[in-house]
Amino acid sequence: MISLKSVSHSYSNQHRIGFKDWQIKDGEQWLLLGASGSGKTTLLHILTGILKPEQGDVMINETAIYGLSSKKLDQFRGRNIGIIFQRPHLIKSLTISENLVMAQSFAKLPTDLVRVNEVLTSLGIADKKNAYPSELSQGQLQRVSIARAVINKPALLIADEPTSSLDDQNAAAVLSLLMEQSGLNQATLVVATHDKRVKDAFTNTYELS
Ligand SMILES: Nc1ncnc2c1ncn2[C@@H]1O[C@H](COP(=O)(O)OP(=O)(O)OP(=O)(O)O)[C@@H](O)[C@H]1O
Predict the structure, then answer these.
(1) Residue 124 φ/ψ region, left for φ over 0, alpha for ψ in the -120 to 50 degree band, beta for the rest
(2) In what residue span(s) does the ABC transporter domain sit (predicted)?
(3) Among 2, 79, 136, 147, which one is most buried in terms of CB atoms within 10 A?
């Protein structure tokens, strides 16, 4: 269960953005909608422990995340939250497999190559495990981002505009992979987007005004 209670934030010299309360049950899939500048990225950063809001509480599975020390919060994030950005942020000098091992090590988890293979196979890119990011297509790279996000079986999977840089075919594939992976890993899924192609796939929506 994830909950957002009485949360608001303002950046210096800017008007305060208020976020209505939100309760997300385990395994639910949500779309986060809002016009450009309404605060979607801000809210995702608050939900993922990257940005402490000026006011309010964020609970993830009984843990008030902003009550944790920054070291504990980093570790909590690595183990419990998987993030997929608009464009993949992979380490170019490491292979695909090494990028995933790095995500295990950031979370202070032991290297688990069986899990690396399992995730790459479920995403249809096991044959790329020894390739470098520069050798993959955009669609394949976005699959690696999903692999990296789910490698540690997070409770919460967050995607920020995951399809906006992809063509129709890849956008549909990435969306169904996200939904499938959140199901396989029993992760709650939150997708922020203004990509109209994504909207019909979700029944739960949280809208920023
Ligand atoms: N680091 C920052 N410092 C100051 N103001 C910021 C910062 N980040 C965001 N803002 C402001 O906060 C508001 C919300 O921004 P945010 O990026 O969360 O919106 P968004 O809904 O994700 O927009 P978009 O869809 O265009 O990415 C905007 O007015 C933006 O200018």
Answers:
(1) left
(2) 2-206
(3) 147
What's the longest Cα–Cα distance across the chain?
Answer: 50
Nearest CA to ligand 1 atom 18: 39
- Note the pLDDT tens digit of each residue in 56-83: 999 998 899 999 999 999 989 988 999 9
Question: 65 near 7, Cβ under 8 Å?
Answer: no
| Whether the Cβ atoms of residue 90 and residue 141 lie closer than 8 Å to each other | yes
Fold of 2-207: Rossmann fold (3.40.50)
ipTM for the complex shown: 0.95
User: Does residue 41 have its Cβ closer than 6 Å to ligand 1?
Assistant: yes
- Using CA positions, which residue lies closest to atom 17 of ligand 1? 41
Q: Tokens 């464009």 identify what position?
A: 87
Cα Rg, the chain, nearest whole Å:
17
